[in-house]
Write a sequence for this structure.
């Protein structure tokens, strides 16, 4: 038969491993994956594909990643966190591809790198900052390729 409704799967020790809803044989609705009684991943499915917010936890229950999906592909903000709950990285996606800003952070919360993407390729300015905030490097990208730095004009009038 075709799976329909909420289904609970168990691990070899008899603990709940996963709770998921099915419609017409496809995952549809909330899905929670467990380890040792703790929720490790909470996601939402629509017609068998990830759709909506997905939250991943570590073994202690701390959130390590939040991501948005649409039709099975990353779509919107994805945020990664360290063990203390500080943001490590934030990236924007559209239809599964990096699209927009991607920012990585130092443990202090200050920006480490800032880049812009278009269709999964670096596009525009990539900037790396020192922890004190000064710019360590700045590179301009076009279609994923670094562009030569503009040279100061040496022409005489």
């Amino acid at each position: 038969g075709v799976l329909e409704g909420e289904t609970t799967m168990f691990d070899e020790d008899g603990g709940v491993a996963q709770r998921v809803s099915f419609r017409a044989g496809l995952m549809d609705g909330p899905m929670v994956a467990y380890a040792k009684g703790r929720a490790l991943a909470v996601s939402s499915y629509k017609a068998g594909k990830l759709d909506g917010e997905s939250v991943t936890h570590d073994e202690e229950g701390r959130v390590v990643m939040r991501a948005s999906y649409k039709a099975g592909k990353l779509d919107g903000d994805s945020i990664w966190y360290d063990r203390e709950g500080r943001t490590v990285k934030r990236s924007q996606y559209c239809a599964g591809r990096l699209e927009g800003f991607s920012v990585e952070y130092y443990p202090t919360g200050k920006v480490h790198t800032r880049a812009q993407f278009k269709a999964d390729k670096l596009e525009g300015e990539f900037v790396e900052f020192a922890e004190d905030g000064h710019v360590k490097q700045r590179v301009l990208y076009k279609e994923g390729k670094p562009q030569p730095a503009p040279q100061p004009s040496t022409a005489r009038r």
Observations:
- The chain has a mean pLDDT of 95.
- The longest strand covers residues 26-35.
- Residues 13 and 136 are 52 Å apart (CA to CA).
